[in-house]
Specification:
Radius of gyration: 27 Å
Distance between the termini: 35 Å
Strand order of the largest sheet: 3-4-5-8-9-10-11-12
Shape: globular
Number of helices: 21
Helix content: 25-40%
Number of strands: 27
CATH topology of the largest domain: TIM Barrel
Amino acid sequence: MKFPYLFSPIKINTMEVKNRIVMTAMHLGYTPEGSVTDQLVDFYRERAKGGVGLILVGGCPIDEFGGMSSMICINDDKYLPGLRRLSGAIKDAGARVGAQLYQAGRYTHSAMIGGRKPISASAVRSKLTGETPRALELSEIPGVQDRFAEAALRAKEAGFDCVEILASAGYLISQFLSSITNRREDEYGGNLENRMRFGLEVARKVRRAVGPHYPVTVRIAGNEFMDGGNTNQEARIFAQALEKEGMDLFNVTGGWHETRIPQLTMFVPRRAYVYLASGIKSAVSVTVLASNRINDPAEAEEILRNGEADMVTVARGLIADPEFAEKARTGKADTIYHCIGCNQGCFDNIFRFMPATCLVNPRAGLEGELEIKTAQVKKRVLVVGGGPAGMKAACVAAQRGHRVTLVEGSERLGGQVMLNERIPGRKEMATAVKDLATNLDYLGVEVITGKKADRTLVEKMNPDAVLIATGARPGMPPVAGADLPHVVQAWDVLAGKKGVGKRVVIVGGNAGGLDAALFLAGIGTIPPDALHFLVANRAETLETLLGLMNRGIKEITVLEMAPKAGADIGLSTRWTVFAELKRLGVTIITGAKVISITPEAVEAETEEGVKRIPADSVVMATGSVSVSDLKAELAGLAAEVLVIGDAVRPRNALEAIKEGFMAGLSV
């Protein structure tokens, strides 16, 4: 498939960009002291080599008061040598590069600025940090604006092709723009014209500093998605005013960090927020960039062909596959490893103050350390198990030139990951398996499904190395009544092998149990296509349709023994899971130890005493147990025998895929 719109050049002010793909700024955690590191340079160089048109790096704090640790500093001339090295490496590898100018305002933690209070438009408490900032004095405002201009000039001197003013996501400029955080009574507060003043003056000063021919872009929120906040209507007015100040491109995203509407998780449908960019495009004449959950070149091409935007953001998609652009350009789009929006390696790591990595790409952030080199001795490699760990190991081993065979006992690849196909908001997990399967085929791996690997089979194949990735099986705690016929495993329910009655008790409230709850609670809710039809034809009232959307036909109760449910779900995703469970009416009881299961109920010991919860069906989601007995059976049959993935110990897909990757490098 060809992508003529995606790979057409575009001119932004005086900057020519070879295609319409932009890697927008993301916090990666690769600069612990604020200075450019080899890790950062290696990471971005590989994406530039992979064919992306424009890379925006950052956020880059413009002063010492408005950032967080491990960001790329641009607030002092001492950072210039590193910044020049970064911009030079990216440009030498074939991409254009810009720096995002960052001042977080009330999103700054006081601990990161020596205990001082963060600044903002007004003293309105931040739900993100739990702190209340101080309002900027009128006399201080010009100085803060000047720091933006000085940072922009520093970026220009460091060889960056453009700069981006960050005016979205609830950061400082957003805080002036929004009536939620701007309670001022001077010329910077009150009506929209006054609230825009701070951001417009920043744009004016930046333009004056860098001159008329240097590209300046602005990242804006097409909708704040905050109660009482700015919508696309106000965003269009702001964009029109910014265009008059000489801004050359609008990078349109949505939401703040406090927004309770998901923006980046896999709960968000692909290209869900393109309409925000279209709204801005209808109001301005300069370039508009669409953002959020655009991870496939065919979808990007459609956005451009339809005229919904002029360029597209593929940000985390380029963490997942640095060669995204080149694969699409050269007819290999099918082999792209797509971002699945899991957030496990990127956002969740950043929230834990760890550098970003990626579930589907374990090399992310380790480009200088992990290289897939051709093996000096070509081997016959047998991979037993077609879950994510085994599939990744087979792909990497084949990339290195080994002759690889993968044997999977079931009729399909993917293991536990494929259970996500039936879970609302989790279906993208299956995309990771599809991509691995496509690459297995492309790399010439022989795949045998529906066949159990045993000693006889391995003897016949006579491999030089065996990688055992046989995964895990569901665990079963010693609970009285667990053998009753109405007690089923969550895996069987999610696989469509077992049905359940109306009243369902799920035993286990970590990720597996909550996933089962999402699936079961969604049964009987109105599907999206039917909802669209009924809304378009005004067949039902909005109240009726909301009721059909928000309640299914099952009554679901989750029992979790620990004090907190979902403890193994990442911070960036956990809140969206619980929001969905609440919407669907799922009851979650924590601190509940199941004592027994009867034909009619589940009895659990809780802080309030023994509870008896009526149940037509009981779903067990109590963890899993490794399946690794094959290693002993294969003793002496191959020079190398290695156990990987859940067969070592059950863990999440990020860890399993990385272990498979490392195994593929080691054989």
